[in-house]
Design a protein that fits this description.
It is a single chain. Helix content is 50%, strand content 7%. With 591 residues, the chain is α+β, with helices and mostly antiparallel strands. It folds into five domains: 105 residues, no CATH class; 190 residues, no CATH class; 77 residues; 32 residues, no CATH class; 117 residues. The strands form five sheets. The chain has a four-stranded mixed β-sheet with strand order 9-8-7-12, with helices on one face. The chain has a two-stranded antiparallel ribbon with strand order 1-2. The chain has a two-stranded antiparallel sheet with strand order 3-4. Helix 6 crosses helix 11, helix 11 runs antiparallel to helix 12 and helix 21 packs across helix 23. The longest helix has 43 residues. The chain is elongated, with a radius of gyration of 35 Å. The two termini are 64 Å apart.
C-alpha cells in the first residue's frame, strides 16, 4: 500500500509540474532549479497533505479526521489542503511559497478553513442572506407538502431536497423507521474522482434528483427501538408533521417581514411547539432521538425531529434579528465584485482569499474591508451572547407554563391558554377569569343513574360480587338484590365502549377480597409484582372511590383510612368472580 501511494504521489507531482510550471513564462529553469528539484518540492507538499483511506494524514497517522470533515468513502485518497486547487488562483511560485512557508506549518488548520468554504458552497452548513433564506424556506414548505403522504407513512420523503442539504437533514425526515441503504452506507461508496464531496454531488446537488422518486433499497432501523417507541413514532408522525408545517407557515408568513417583532415571533413559535407535547411526550422523544444518534448523515442525526425544528427556530430568529450571516456574505461578495477578480463571481475556494496578497492595491483594500467586517461581526456576536439569556428565560417560562396543562384542553382552547393557566394558578373558576369559555360547547359528561338503595344503607351493609368481568351482583338490606354491568355503574371507556381502567382495578381488587395490604405474608412473596408497587395506585383508588360514591349515592368514602389500616381496604364486602378465583399467591403474579 505504501509503495502504491508513493507512486501515486510521484505521478501526480509530475502532472502538476507539466500543467502549471513547464510552460509558464514567469518560470525559468536553471541547473539548480531544474525539473527534478521542483517535482521533489511538489512531492513533499503532496505527502504532507495526503489523506489516507482511513482518514488519516499520510505523514501523521495519529491525526484522525472526522466524517464531519471528509465525506468521501473510506477507500478514497485525496489531498487537503489541496495544492492543485491553489494553482487555479495563485501563480505557481506564490503557491509553492504559501505552502512551504505557511500552509505546511498548520496543515490541519488550513484543512479546516478550506473545507469550511467547501461546506458553505455545497450547502452542508447554512450560509445565506435573509433574502436567500426567505426563498429557501418557501421552496422547502412546498417540498414538505408534496412529500406529506410518504412522510406520514414511512417517515422518509419520496425524493431529496436539492436546494439545501443542511435543511434536508435537519427537517425533511419525519422519524423514519426505514431509510435508503445508500444513506446508511454513504462512506462505502466508490469514488472514482477522489472528490470528498462525491456522494453529496451525486445524490443531493444533482438537479435531476429533484422530484425523482426514490426506488432504492432500504434498511430498517426498527431494531434500535422498543415496541412501545415504535408505536409512539407511528402515532406521532402526523402530529409532528402538522407541527412542522405550522412552524414553516409562521416562518414564511411573518418572520421575514421587516415589521415583525422578532422577539414576539420567537415566543409564539415556542408556545406552538411546547403546547403540542406533554412532559411525558418530551421524555419519550428524548429517548427516541438519542437512539437515532446511531444513524448519521454528514455527522448529523437523521430524524428531522424536535431538536432539528428547535435548532431551525433558534437559527432563523437570531439571523433575522441580528443579520450576522447576511452582513458577512454581502460584504464578502462586495469584496470580490469591486476587485480585479470580479470575473470569479463568488468565493468558491479558500485560495481566492490568498490571491489578494499578490497585488498591493487589492491586498490593502481587502484587509481594510475585512477588518471593518470583523469589528462589526464582533459587535453583533456580543449582542447575540447577551440575547441568549432572553432566549433561555423565554423557553423556561414556556415549558413551565405549557407542559403542565392537559394537551386536549390546550388544543381546544388554544387562544385562551395564557389566561387559563393563570386561573389554575390562582385557584379561580373559569367563570371569574374567562367568561367567554361559557360560549364554547362543554365536554359531554358520562350519564349514570344512581342506584336506589334502601334508606340509611351504609357501605358496611353492602356486598358486591363479580359474576364475570362485565357484571356484578349487588346485595343490600331488605333483600335488595340487583345485577348491573360496568356501563350502568359509569365505568365505560367513552372512546371504545369497553371497561375503563377503574373497572379493571375494581375487578382485580375483588380477587383480593377488597383488601390490598403490605402486611399479609402471602403478598410479601411477590412484592415486586404487587399492585401497591405501582406509583399510580393511589390516584386510581381515589378515582374508583369517587365513581362508587356517585353510583351508590353514599357520601362517605367506600375505603377505610389507609394510614390507620396500612391497606386499601373496602368497607363493603367485595367478592371475586367465582369462575376466576385463585390462590392469593397465584393472583399476585398477574399484576
Amino acid at each position: 500500500m505504501k509503495k502504491d501511494i508513493e507512486e501515486l504521489i510521484k505521478r501526480k507531482a509530475n502532472n502538476i509540474y507539466e500543467k502549471y510550471y513547464s510552460n509558464n513564462p514567469c518560470f525559468s529553469l536553471n541547473e539548480i532549479n531544474n525539473k527534478a528539484y521542483f517535482v521533489n518540492k511538489i512531492c513533499f507538499i503532496l505527502k504532507k497533505t495526503l489523506i489516507t483511506p482511513k482518514r488519516k494524514r499520510y505523514l501523521d497517522k495519529n491525526y484522525i479526521l472526522s466524517a464531519n470533515d471528509t465525506f468521501g468513502a473510506d477507500s478514497n485518497i485525496f489531498f487537503s489542503p489541496n495544492f492543485e486547487e491553489s494553482l487555479k488562483y495563485l501563480s505557481p511560485l506564490s503557491a509553492l511559497g504559501f505552502f512551504e512557508e505557511i500552509y505546511l506549518d498548520d496543515v490541519n488548520g488550513i484543512y479546516a478553513n478550506e473545507h469550511l468554504i467547501y461546506q458553505e458552497n455545497n450547502g452542508l452548513i447554512p450560509y445565506f442572506t435573509i433574502k436567500e433564506l426567505s426563498c429557501l424556506y418557501k421552496n422547502f414548505a412546498l417540498y414538505i407538502e408534496d412529500n406529506s403522504k410518504s412522510l406520514i407513512e414511512t417517515g422518509w420523503p419520496d425524493y431529496n431536497f436539492t436546494d439545501s442539504v443542511w435543511l434536508f437533514y435537519k427537517l425533511a425526515p419525519n422519524y423514519p423507521i426505514e431509510i435508503p441503504i445508500y444513506i446508511k452506507d454513504f462512506s462505502k461508496l466508490k469514488n472514482p474522482s477522489s472528490d470528498p464531496y462525491f456522494f453529496l454531488k451525486k445524490y443531493f446537488l444533482n438537479k435531476t434528483n429533484q422530484f425523482k422518486k426514490c426506488k432504492c433499497k432500504t434498511v430498517s432501523l426498527s431494531k434500535i427501538f422498543s415496541y412501545k417507541e415504535l408505536g409512539f413514532i407511528e402515532d406521532m408522525r402526523y402530529k409532528f408533521l402538522f407541527l412542522k408545517k405550522t412552524i414553516l407557515n409562521e416562518i414564511n408568513q411573518y418572520l421575514f417581514l421587516e415589521t415583525t417583532d422578532k422577539d414576539v415571533w420567537f415566543k409564539n413559535c415556542a408556545k406552538i411547539v411546547f403546547s403540542n407535547f406533554s412532559q411525558k411526550d418530551l421524555q419519550i422523544i428524548t429517548s427516541i432521538e438519542k437512539k437515532y444518534d446511531e444513524i448519521k448523515l454528514f455527522n448529523n442525526i437523521l430524524n428531522g425531529g424536535l431538536n432539528g425544528l428547535l435548532e431551525n427556530i433558534f437559527f432563523l430568529y437570531e439571523e433575522c434579528k441580528f443579520k450576522k450571516m447576511t452582513l458577512e456574505k454581502n460584504t464578502m461578495n462586495s469584496i470580490l465584485e469591486g476587485s480585479k477578480f470580479n470575473y470569479q463571481r463568488k468565493f468558491r475556494s479558500y485560495y481566492q482569499l490568498a490571491q489578494f496578497v499578490e497585488d498591493n492595491y487589492e491586498n490593502k483594500r481587502f484587509n481594510k474591508m475585512k477588518n471593518k467586517l470583523n469589528n462589526e461581526l464582533n459587535k453583533i456576536e456580543k449582542e447575540i451572547i447577551n440575547n441568549k439569556q432572553f432566549m433561555s428565560d423565554t423557553l423556561d417560562f414556556i415549558k413551565k407554563e405549557y407542559l403542565n396543562v392537559e394537551y386536549l384542553l390546550k388544543q381546544k382552547y388554544y387562544p385562551f391558554v395564557d389566561n387559563l393557566i393563570k386561573s389554575f394558578e390562582k385557584g379561580e373558576s373559569f367563570g371569574i377569569c374567562i367568561p367567554f369559555l361559557y360560549q364554547l360547547p362543554t365536554p359531554s359528561q358520562k350519564r349514570i343513574t344512581p342506584l336506589k338503595l334502601p334508606p340509611d344503607t351504609k357501605w358496611e351493609h353492602i356486598t358486591i360480587q363479580f359474576l364475570d368481568y362485565d357484571k356484578v351482583k349487588i346485595q343490600a338490606p331488605n333483600k335488595f338484590n340487583k345485577v348491573v354491568n360496568f356501563r350502568k355503574m359509569g365505568f365505560e371507556n367513552q372512546k371504545n365502549g369497553k371497561p375503563n381502567k377503574q373497572w379493571e382495578l375494581f375487578y382485580n381488587l375483588a380477587r383480593y377480597r377488597g383488601d390490598l395490604s403490605w402486611t399479609i405474608t402471602t403478598y410479601r412473596k411477590k412484592v415486586d409484582s404487587h399492585p401497591l408497587s405501582t406509583p399510580k395506585i393511589r390516584k386510581q383508588i381515589q378515582r374508583l372511590s369517587e365513581s362508587l360514591k356517585a353510583y351508590f349515592n353514599i357520601n362517605e368514602p367506600p375505603f377505610y383510612d389507609y394510614v390507620k389500616y396500612e391497606a386499601y381496604k373496602t368497607k363493603f364486602f367485595l367478592l371475586p368472580d367465582p369462575l376466576n378465583t385463585k390462590n392469593l399467591c397465584d393472583v399476585t403474579e398477574t399484576f
